[in-house]
Automatic annotation (TrEMBL):
Protein name per its UniProtKB record: LysM peptidoglycan-binding domain-containing protein
Segments forming domain LysM: 301-345
PANTHER family found in the cross-reference section: MUREIN HYDROLASE ACTIVATOR ENVC, PEPTIDASE-RELATED
Gene Ontology molecular function: metalloendopeptidase activity
Cross-referenced CDD domains: LysM (cd00118), M23_peptidase (cd12797)
UniProt xrefs under InterPro entries: Cell_wall_metabolism_enzyme, Dup_hybrid_motif, LysM, LysM_dom_sf, M23ase_b-sheet_dom
Organism encoding this protein: Algoriphagus formosus
Top-level taxon: Bacteria
Length: 346
C-alpha cells in the first residue's frame, strides 16, 4: 500500500515537470490586432517586383561612336560625349538581320530607338543633329574602313571625273562634289551602313539617298534617276543603291555626292582623290578646321533683285525660306519686289 502511494506521488510530480517543459518548447500564439494587419496590407505593394524596363536599359548603353559601334564589353555606368569618344574601332553589334518598324530599327533583337542610335532617327530631314560647330574644339579620329574586321570602302561611281567641287558657287554654297556620269550608271554605297532617307526634292537633290555609316559619317547621293534601296535597309560598301540621273535642280546628268559628320557637310576631297581614283587614308581626323567653311557661309549675303524674280525664286536659289528673307528685310512675304532692290539673304 505504501509502495502504491509512493508511485502515485512520483507520477504526479513527473507529470507536472513534463507539462512545464512542454510549455517552454511550444511558444504562445499571439494574435495581432486589426491596425497592424491593415498597416501590413498597405505596405505590401511597395515591395512588389517590377518588370524589366528595356527602353531605360537601352538608353544607358555606352557606344564608342555616334552610330551603333560597340566595344567588346559595354560599360553601362558611363555615357560619353561625342567629342571625347574614340572612333578607332570597327566593332558593330551583330547584324545580318535588320527590319524597319516605323522609326525604329531591329538588329538581332536589339531595338535601337531614336534616343540611342545616333541620338535620333529621322527618315525625312537630312540635318537632324543640331551640332553646334562653334562649340566643337576637339579633334575626332574616324576609322573609315578596316579590312581586318571586314569593313571596306568603295567610290560612289566606277569612274569619278569631277565637274564641280565643294565650295561657294553661283552665289550660294555647294555642299558636295559633282561627279560626271551617264544616266543609268550604278551608284554605290561608299561604306557599310543603313539607309536613313530615300526621298525626292524638286528644287534641290531630286531623287536622293542618305546612308548612315558604321564609321560615324553619313553620305548623300543626289540627282538620281532610280533608287534601289529602302529606308532601314542595311548596305555594304560597294552595294548598288541607285542609278545616276539628272533629277531636281540639275543642268545635266551627274552625281551630287556629300560627306557629312553630325549633319554638317565637309569637303569629300579631304577623303578621296577622285582623279586617281583612291581613298587618301584609312583614318580621318575631324577638327574645327574641317568646318571652316561654315563661318564663311554664315557671313552676310545680299542679293540684287533682277527682272522676273520674286521672294520664292530667290529663297530657292539660296536654300533659305521666304519667311526668313522677309523677316531680315522687314517686309511681308507677299511684298512686290522692285528691280535693283538689295535683299539680305543671310
Amino acid at each position: 500500500m505504501k509502495y502504491l502511494r509512493l508511485i502515485l506521488i512520483l507520477g504526479t510530480i513527473l507529470s507536472i515537470g513534463i507539462d512545464h517543459s512542454n510549455a517552454q518548447i511550444f511558444p504562445k500564439i499571439i494574435k495581432k490586432d486589426k491596425s497592424e494587419t491593415q498597416f501590413e496590407a498597405k505596405e505590401r505593394p511597395n515591395i512588389e517586383l517590377r518588370g524589366f524596363d528595356q527602353e531605360s536599359y537601352l538608353r544607358t548603353l555606352s557606344s564608342i561612336t555616334d552610330s551603333i559601334l560597340f566595344q567588346n564589353n559595354v560599360n553601362l555606368g558611363k555615357v560619353r560625349s561625342i567629342v571625347s569618344e574614340d572612333q578607332d574601332y570597327m566593332i558593330w553589334a551583330p547584324t545580318n538581320r535588320l527590319a524597319k518598324v516605323s522609326e525604329q530599327i531591329l538588329i538581332d533583337s536589339i531595338w535601337v530607338t531614336a534616343y540611342e542610335y545616333y541620338s535620333s532617327w529621322d527618315s525625312k530631314k537630312i540635318d537632324i543633329y543640331n551640332f553646334d560647330v562653334d562649340q566643337f574644339q576637339d579633334t575626332v579620329k574616324v576609322r573609315l574602313y578596316d579590312t581586318f574586321f571586314g569593313y571596306d570602302w568603295k567610290l560612289p561611281l566606277d569612274e569619278t571625273p569631277v565637274t564641280s567641287r565643294f565650295g561657294y558657287r553661283w552665289r550660294r554654297w555647294h555642299y558636295g562634289t559633282d561627279l560626271d556620269l551617264i544616266t543609268g550608271d550604278p551608284v554605290y554605297a561608299a561604306f557599310d551602313g543603313i539607309v536613313r532617307i530615300r526621298s525626292y526634292d524638286r528644287y534641290g537633290y531630286g531623287y536622293y539617298v542618305v546612308v548612315r555609316h558604321k564609321n560615324g559619317l553619313e553620305t548623300v547621293y543626289g540627282h538620281l534617276s532610280k533608287i534601289l534601296v529602302d529606308v532601314g535597309q542595311e548596305v555594304k560598301a560597294g552595294d548598288i543603291i541607285a542609278k545616276g540621273g539628272n533629277t531636281g535642280r540639275s543642268t545635266g546628268s551627274h552625281l551630287h555626292y556629300e560627306l557629312r559628320y553630325r549633319g554638317l557637310a565637309f569637303d569629300p576631297e579631304i577623303v578621296y582623290d577622285f582623279s586617281a581614283p583612291k581613298i587618301l587614308s584609312q583614318e580621318l581626323f575631324i577638327s574645327p578646321a574641317t568646318f571652316s567653311h561654315i563661318a564663311k557661309a554664315r557671313q552676310r549675303v545680299y542679293h540684287r533683285v533682277r527682272s522676273g524674280e520674286n521672294l520664292g525664286v530667290i529663297a530657292r536659289r539660296y536654300g533659305v525660306s521666304v519667311s526668313s528673307i522677309a523677316r531680315m528685310n522687314g517686309i511681308s512675304t507677299r511684298s512686290i519686289l522692285r528691280i535693283g532692290q538689295n535683299l539680305r539673304i543671310r
